[in-house]
Structures are given as C-alpha cells and as structure tokens.
Design a protein that fits this description.
A hairpin with a 5-residue loop joins strand 4 and strand 5. It contains twelve helices and 19 strands. The strands form four sheets. The protein has an eight-stranded mixed beta sheet with strand order 5-4-13-14-15-12-17-16. The chain has a six-stranded mixed beta sheet with strand order 7-2-1-11-19-18, sandwiched between helices. By secondary structure, it is of the alpha/beta class. The model has no long low-confidence stretch (mean pLDDT 96). It is globular, with a radius of gyration of 21 Å. The two termini are 39 Å apart. The protein binds flavin-adenine dinucleotide. The site of flavin-adenine dinucleotide has 34 residues, from helix 1, strand 3, strand 12 and helix 10. Flavin-adenine dinucleotide (FAD) binds next to helix 1, strand 3, strand 12 and helix 10.
Length: 386
Amino acid sequence: MNNKPTITVIGAGLGGAAAGALLQQAGYPTKVYEQAPAFSRLGAGIHLGPNVMKVMRRIGIEEKLNAMGSHPDYWFSRNGMTGEYQSRIPLGEFARENYGAAYITVHRGDLHELMVSTLDQDNLYFDKRLVDVDDSGNKVVMTFADGSTEEADLVIGADGVNSRLREKLLGPEAPIYSGWVAHRAIISAEKLKAYDLDFEACVKWWSEDRHMMVYFVTGDEKEYYYVTGVPEPDWNHGTSFVDSSREEMRKAFEGYHPTVQALIDCTETVTKWPLLERNPLPLWHENRLVLLGDACHPMKPHMAQGAAMAIEDAAMLVRCLEEVGAEHYQQAFELYRTNRFERASRVQQVSHDNTWLREDEDPAWVFAYDPFEVPLKQPTSQGSPA
Ligand code: FAD
C-alpha cells in the first residue's frame, strides 16, 4: 500500500516536469496539469550546466542529453565591437572533471519534449488551466478553467512567472518589467559557411548596455542560436513575445563585430521577449501549497540559470520530502526553502546585474552544486532568511 501523499504539480514547464518525474520515481502518486493544449518546438536554446545535468542523471536522461547537445570547450566573452577576448571559461572535459557532469547547450524544445516524456503519461493533463485553489486544511481542491475540480494532499506551483499559486499565497502583483528585452533566433549553420569567420560554440558578445549570447543547439551543429539583452524602456504589447526583424537587429547591434553582423544577415525569423523579474518573495509555501522556479524567483536570463534554478528547486523539494517524511510536509517545505532561498536570490541578483562570466571568474559555486549531495542547512527557530 502506498502511504505517500497525493501530489499535484501545476505547470509542465522545465521545473514542473522535473518535479513530476522525480516525485513519480520516488513513489508519490503525482499528477501534472498544464494549461497549454500541447507544446511546440519554439525557436530557442538553453544552456544546461553541470549542476542541472546532475539532476538529469537522476531523472535518467543524462546520456540522451549528452548525445543531443553541443559540448562547448569554453564560454568566451568578447568585446562586441573589437572582438577582443574578455574571458575564457573552461567547460568541456574541465567541467566533467571538476564539476561532475558535462556543460551542454541544446534546443529548448528538444529538452522539454524529452523531459515531458519521462512523466507518467497517464497522469499528465494538457489544456488544464488552474483558476482557483482552496486549501481547506485537510486537502487541496483545485478548480480549472474548464469547470472541473481535482483534489490532492499537496500542490506544487510550477506555473511560471504569472503563477496563479503565487497569487493565491501573496495576492495579485504583476512581475516587474526589467527594461530589457531578449531577441531570439535560430540560424541554419549551413548559411554561415558563406562567411570566412569563426563561429564559436559558445560566445557572448558584450558592449556597455547590451549583449548577444550565441551557441549551437544541436550536437551536429546544424542549428546556431542567438539570444540578446537590449534595453527597451517600455513593454506594452500584452503578449509574452512579438516578432522582431533583421532591420531592428541591425539597429540594435550597429557597430558590432562582423561575426555578429553575419548572424544578423543570416536571420530568417527573430522574436522579441520582455525580461521580467520579481524581488525575492517573503513566502514560498503555506500549509499544503509550495512554489518553485519562476513562480517564486523569476529572473533575467543573463546567467542562463533560470530553468536551472527551477530544476534544482524540484530536486531539493523532493529530497526534503524524503528527508523528513512527507507526513511532515510543512517541515519539509521549510527545509526546502531554507536550502534554496539564498542560492536562488544570489542567482537572481547576478542575473539582474548581468556580470556573469564577463571577465574571468571561478564559476564553481554555480556549476559544482549538486542538490542531492549538498549538506542540508536546518531552518532556525526564527525561520530561515527572508
Ligand atoms: P515555465 O517554464 O514558465 O513553466 C511554467 C508552466 O506552467 C508553463 O508550461 C505554463 O504554460 C504553465 N502554467 C502557467 N500557468 C498555469 C495555470 N494557471 N494552470 C496550468 N498550467 C499553467 N534558463 C536557463 O536555465 N538557461 C537558459 O539558457 C535560459 N535562457 C532564457 C532565455 C530567455 C530569453 C528567457 C526569457 C528565459 C531563459 N531562461 C533560461 C529562463 C527559463 O526560461 C525560465 O527560468 C524557466 O523556464 C522557468 O521554468 P518554470 O518551470 O519555473 O516555468
């Protein structure tokens, strides 16, 4: 007989999928509800550092990801105008030896599809938008936009930057528009062969107030990807992204190095996304409800660690439930928060400042972290840092 509590995860994004997979593996009867009717292969890439790959190992997809992804030997930072190198951060073999797993870059859609495939498909529900949640004390009742209701013992809000669960815990409050946008485009590497230029596997081009991060998103290096950070005072589009254009990119990166100009010339479609943040939240859990990922610490993507933090959260949350026993879920949730708050807030701050790896620095505090092995800090009687 299974005495473990029933758990519902709201949101099958990268954090929700990780939480669902790890909970199901640990024997928790877990259902995952996602508002989208289906997922598409959106044109975007993502870095997976060794800290995330260690969680992927537990989920059982590390080898598939290693085969799927590009394995850069270095992260280069370069002056956007002159091309001068500002940092050379060793990854590749160095990362495997020193941080305990590979550093890869992949297509976000491929990663997401693989992660979602690890969930029990009979307990994964699409087209289910949570609209209300009632934590009566003995159980949680969730109401969805289609009028249906479901019950669970515990509910995890992995529902992203506009989290309905966060709103339930802390009241309605829109995320903060940071004043920066990100352009995203995938380029066919075939087109780049026309240029006598070096297109490095992982490089960030910087100038005073903007940047362009570039990397391959497939192991065969057929798809190259850029994502920018460019100041734009207002965002009034009311959507999560809009179309941008080659002309807009040329204007934004005027005077940049010929390699960057070549990428813009080869761009077929490019989208533009507002970068949203929140200040660290005073509350991550209450009674039977708990948050993870962008629902509790959305950040600018400038460290390439937003999803990484969501996935680490998922791992730590499951570890804490196992550590103290799920019947003591409030203790487990506080132990989870105690062990995640400081790190997530620090990553939020460095992402906000956009200083990560701009100059040579030791990235071990991020990459060497293993949420399953790091010694646990116990909450103080006054509660952990807020
Ligand atoms: P999400 O991925 O937003 O998932 C939330 C899910 O919940 C969604 O599927 C949503 O449809 C669903 N949902 C929402 N509301 C409801 C509801 N009411 N009911 C049911 N379902 C709901 N991070 C990295 O680690 N590396 C990178 O290289 C990187 N690059 C980035 C580049 C850009 C331009 C941006 C904007 C972000 C980047 N990030 C990166 C950050 C990363 O995308 C996020 O931090 C990450 O997706 C957060 O994961 P999550 O699971 O918390 O939320």
